[in-house]
Amino acid sequence: MRILSKRQLKELVLYAPQHIARLEKAGLFPMRVQLGPNRVGWVEAEVLDWLKQRLADRETPPDTPA
């Protein structure tokens, strides 16, 4: 298992940290893992799954049932 830092996550997802936090709070993005008092990370596999779902969603026309 690999944990992504904030910097690595930003390079992969291209969202601002504030937007990622909003998505997490809404349950629309993988939750961060508290690694220490001042350190967080994200499970790479969960983030990649999230990205794969975004790609799958763009390939499905809006009027087509999934």
Automatic annotation (TrEMBL):
Protein name: Transcriptional regulator, AlpA family
A Pfam family matched in the record: Phage_AlpA
InterPro entries reported for this sequence: AlpA
Lineage: Bacteria, Pseudomonadati, Pseudomonadota, Alphaproteobacteria, Rhodobacterales
Domain of life: Bacteria
